[in-house]
């Protein structure tokens, strides 16, 4: 079922979400990344939370998603959150316990209720 939802989101919901993602006053951000084999630039809507030295992105579908593999291969991406674009580097997968220590308790609790076990941590480039 999770794969069916992921595919629906990838091909139906994500193109619609990209019309608003990254804009001020909207909850979704957009991550721009380069394809690991094609070299083509892609944009994917994500949820991104600001943490001390960068951002955390929940991975509700786990780590086996194309956009994540692209970011990991490149070691960098551009993340637009609330109308501001950030260059981000050093992608690192962290578990929910590490993420919970970086997030406000209400936010961590929400991700826990949705069963999110892994997050992508990105540092803001200098």
Give the structure's gist in a few sentences:
The protein is of the alpha+beta class and 126 residues long. The protein contains 4 helices and 7 strands. The chain has one domain: Electron Transport, Fmn-binding Protein, Chain A (Pnp Oxidase, Chain A, Roll).
Secondary-structure topology with pairs:
Layout: H1 2-17, E1 29-34, E2 41-46, E3 49-51, E4 54-58, H2 66-74, E5 76-81, E6 84-95, H3 96-102, H4 105-113, E7 118-124
Antiparallel strand pairs: 1-2, 1-5, 3-4, 4-7, 5-6, 6-7
Characterise the protein shown here.
InterPro entries: F420H2_quin_Rdtase (IPR004378), Split_barrel_FMN-bd (IPR012349). It holds the Pfam family F420H2_quin_red. GO terms for molecular function: oxidoreductase activity. This is Deazaflavin-dependent oxidoreductase, nitroreductase family protein. The protein is of the alpha+beta class and 126 residues long. The protein has a single domain, classed as Roll (Pnp Oxidase, Chain A), CATH 2.30.110.10. Helix content is 33%, strand content 36%. It is built from 4 helices and 7 strands. It has helices at residues 2-17, 66-74, 96-102, 105-113, and strands spanning 29-34, 41-46, 49-51, 54-58, 76-81, 84-95, 118-124. The protein has a 7-stranded antiparallel sheet with strand order 2-1-5-6-7-4-3. Strand 3 and strand 4 (54-58) form a beta hairpin. The longest helix has 16 residues, at 2-17. It is globular and about 40 Å long.
* Unreliable segments of 5+ consecutive residues: none
How many DSSP helices? 4
Reading the helices and strands in chain order gives: HEEEEHEEHHE
Overall geometric form: globular
Report the CATH superfamily.
Electron Transport, Fmn-binding Protein, Chain A
Kindly provide the radius of gyration, computed on alpha-carbon positions and rounded to a whole number of angstroms.
14 Å
Order of strands, main sheet, comes to 2-1-5-6-7-4-3
CATH hierarchy: architecture: Roll
Distance, first to last CA: 40 Å
* Helical content (DSSP H or I, runs of 4+): 25-40%
Strand residues, percent: 35-45%
What is the CATH class name?
Mainly Beta
Let me know the average pLDDT: 94
How many domains comprise the coordinates? 1
Largest sheet: 7 strands, antiparallel
Q: How would you classify the quaternary structure?
A: single chain
